[in-house]
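[Q] Does anyone have a clean structure-token version of this?
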Amino acid sequence: MLNYVSLLSPGFSGSTLTSMLLASQPGIVGFGDTYFSGRNKPGNPCTCGLPYTDCPVRQAISAHARRNGLADFSFFDMRAVPTPRGLSEKQQRTWFLRRSGMLPWVRAIPAAARRTLFARFYRETDLMLAALDDFGDYEVYFDGCKSLVRLELLRSSGHEPRALHMIRHPGAYLYHFQRGGEADLDRRLRGWLQYHSRARAFRPLLGEENYRLVTYEGIVSQPARFLDEVADFMGATRIDASEPVELKQEGVHVMGNSMRRRSTTVINMANRWRGQLEPAWERKADALVADHEWLSNLFAPKGPADSEIPNSDAT
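[A] Here you go.
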């Protein structure tokens, strides 16, 4: 059975790059966060170089699902959480189970009741993993969709999911929205902290051995070290951590932006937001980190001699 590893990270935090970096390894397969979204259009290219609908891994999953009881299975209809069919894209984006605030409600549902209420969701997940097990020589399925509710539901799936919780400095997160012309950055900053606090709460639920905390900054500054240090956690035995670390597009099945489709190596863009974000917001982002010990430990300046990839034992 494949090990199931979920990425926990809000959008615009480097999740696509992380998915591509890990899926470049021979024993790891993943689709980033786009295989559950409205961006799955027939003409969109997969990073493996083929049109989305011709991607052999996706074709294998679809064929397996249809042979095993889901005659109407389609990647176009798969979502991160159970969602009624027939909703518009706008309705799908606002569907209540997409909100991380629904975690208490979902956790109140007994595991057996979840399996009944969301039978289609669990069936799709089971068939997808079975197809991947048959299709390739994979050890790990890396789920880059980032949904906290999805991970909560998967705790009732029997697949014993693990969580790779990745944090990028809130200043970088705010800079994305500043560039987009957004004015209410306070709301974004509150949302950033809320997401990561809820993600961190999975640590005791999953168990110490199934939760690992890393930073985007640590990943892009030392990608080889990151791969080496998370290999055992993920259950991946065929990790190539040689320098320079390459993004092997032909083995990656993530639909990212055009930059990601052209990238062949990890680009260190860790702190390029410094000096670009408005000074007042830079100070607010730094103050938020300083106000929470578990965050300040992650982002404390380190010299070359003691630089490390932060993990759950350090929090």
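[Q] Thanks! Anything notable?
[A] Residues 303-308, 311-315 have pLDDT under 50 and may be disordered.
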